């Protein structure tokens, strides 16, 4: 009997140790982790530089509250804003909290303009978190069901559809767009080139906030610090979490331009946001996330994608994603329900399936040459089984 609320469908394995791209179970069996805790441990498990920073800070000072100055928070803010090309940051503890902060900023922006019923444009297949506001912004019906989501406060349009957003230009209640540059949970959808630019332009023309959710795509995941840096847009609000702490829970909401002066003293807060401990971790992550690591994420992601493409394109497989955000799209009629367990049990390979038929890989950004080869070997064996019909439901 477990005392835990039954909110998760868990695989029957307990990991007790992690090192680089491998996790070890209770029998000390090694599993190649191509998921990194859902895009969290981007630098691999227990990276020595992050562990050292944690150890030092745990022995020095963990928490003081935001009633006092926190030099490590200042430093983390500087490193993050410089990498992200943003002006100011608010630190929280998760992706959902970062997006809550963004939603509050948008509503405050609306309030200052005198709007009485502000609405934020969000996308079909979007995922923004599980708090009440962020689950309302999320599209997934399973996540929303029964929660009396705040449906009057969001307008949902198809992703990658500029015309649908243009059609809302006459709606005086709209105050912002919230969008993922690449939809992660929704099936690794990348929009067409020019989509984000068009949204940015619409935000500019209509005085809306242009808000990017980079909780999953940020912190080097796509081979740039932030995915939007593959384009020439500039967000007003940028949220992130996941890889930001390499496993330590921390989130951030950054602002630039017209979003910079919205919050003042007392507008927002968090007991745990930006503790000395969490901030020190962010600093260690950003000191370790060098341009070489970003280049590695780009190169290894391309190599994995190419290997799958070469071998399985003639079986109807297509590839999605950028850098170390890799989606392997299987033919639509395929039963994918047994793939995760088969990969785990037969090949000790950790991955997941999203959007019904998309195998999702989110490997470490610093994946070594040897581990890249190993990943391709195990993945190919898995896909061979899938196409031989040897993967049960
Ligand atoms: C794009 C995006 N936004 C927000 C979240 C929510 O983050 P968290 O689970 O840290 O609250 C996620 C989590 O998967 C995400 O992928």
TrEMBL record:
Segment forming the signal sequence: none
Top EC class of this enzyme: transferase
Record-level Gene Ontology MF annotations: identical protein binding; N2-acetyl-L-ornithine:2-oxoglutarate 5-aminotransferase activity; pyridoxal phosphate binding
UniProt binding sites for N(2)-acetyl-L-ornithine: 130, 270
GO BP terms in the entry: L-arginine biosynthetic process
Binding site for pyridoxal 5'-phosphate: 95-96, 127, 213-216, 271
A Gene Ontology cellular-component term: cytoplasm
Keyword field contains Transferase: yes
Gene3D superfamilies recorded: Aspartate Aminotransferase, domain 1, Type I PLP-dependent aspartate aminotransferase-like (Major domain)
Cofactor(s) named in the record: pyridoxal 5'-phosphate
Top-level division of the source organism's lineage: Bacteria
Keyword Cytoplasm: yes
Keywords tagged on the record: Amino-acid biosynthesis, Aminotransferase, Arginine biosynthesis, Cytoplasm, Pyridoxal phosphate, Transferase
Cofactor note: Binds 1 pyridoxal phosphate per subunit.
Entries under InterPro entries matching the protein: AcOrn/SuccOrn_fam (IPR004636), Aminotrans_3 (IPR005814), Aminotrans_3_PPA_site (IPR049704), Class-III_PLP-dep_AT (IPR050103), PyrdxlP-dep_Trfase (IPR015424), PyrdxlP-dep_Trfase_major (IPR015421), PyrdxlP-dep_Trfase_small (IPR015422)
Pathway in which the depicted protein is active: Amino-acid biosynthesis; L-arginine biosynthesis; N(2)-acetyl-L-ornithine from L-glutamate: step 4/4
Major subcellular site: cytoplasm
EC number(s) per entry: 2.6.1.11
Subunit: Homodimer.
Similarity-based family: Belongs to the class-III pyridoxal-phosphate-dependent aminotransferase family. ArgD subfamily.
Matches recorded under HAMAP family: ArgD_aminotrans_3
Name this protein carries in UniProt: Acetylornithine aminotransferase
Organism listed in the record: Moraxella caviae
């Amino acid at each position: 009997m477990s005392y835990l609320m039954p909110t998760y469908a868990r695989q029957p394995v307990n990991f007790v140790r992690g090192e680089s791209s491998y996790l070890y179970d209770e029998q000390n069996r090694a599993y190649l982790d191509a998921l990194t805790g859902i895009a969290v441990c981007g630098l691999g498990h227990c990276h020595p530089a992050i562990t050292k920073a944690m150890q030092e800070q745990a022995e020095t000072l963990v928490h003081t509250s935001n009633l006092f100055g926190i030099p490590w928070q200042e430093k983390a803010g500087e490193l993050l804003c410089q990498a992200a090309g943003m002006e100011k940051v608010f630190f929280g503890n998760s992706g959902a909290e970062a997006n809550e902060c963004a939603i509050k900023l948008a509503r405050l922006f609306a309030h200052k303009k005198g709007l009485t019923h502000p609405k934020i444009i969000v996308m079909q297949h979007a995922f923004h978190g599980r708090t009440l506001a962020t689950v309302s912004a999320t599209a997934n019906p399973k996540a929303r069901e029964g929660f009396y989501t705040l449906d009057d406060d969001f307008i949902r349009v198809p992703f990658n559809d500029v015309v649908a957003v243009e059609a809302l230009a006459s709606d005086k209640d709209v105050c912002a767009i919230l969008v993922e540059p690449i939809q992660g949970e929704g099936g690794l959808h990348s929009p067409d080139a020019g989509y984000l630019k068009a949204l940015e332009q619409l935000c500019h023309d209509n005085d809306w906030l242009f808000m990017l959710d980079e909780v999953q795509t940020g912190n080097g995941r796509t081979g740039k610090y932030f995915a939007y840096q593959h384009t020439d847009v500039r967000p007003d609000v940028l949220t992130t979490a996941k890889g930001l702490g390499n496993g330590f829970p921390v989130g951030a909401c950054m602002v630039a331009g017209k979003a910079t002066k919205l919050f003042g003293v007392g507008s927002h807060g968090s007991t745990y946001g930006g503790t000395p401990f969490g901030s020190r971790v962010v600093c260690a992550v950003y000191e370790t996330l060098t341009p070489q690591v970003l280049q590695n994420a780009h190169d290894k992601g391309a190599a994995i994608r190419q290997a799958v493409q070469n071998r399985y394109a003639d079986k109807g497989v297509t590839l999605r994603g950028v850098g170390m955000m890799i989606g392997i799209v299987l033919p639509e009629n395929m039963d994918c329900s047994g793939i995760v367990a088969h990969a785990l049990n037969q090949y000790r390979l950790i991955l997941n399936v999203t959007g019904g038929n998309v195998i999702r890989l989110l490997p470490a950004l610093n994946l070594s040459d040897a581990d890249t080869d190993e990943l391709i070997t195990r993945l190919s064996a898995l896909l061979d089984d899938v196409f031989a019909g040897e993967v049960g439901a």
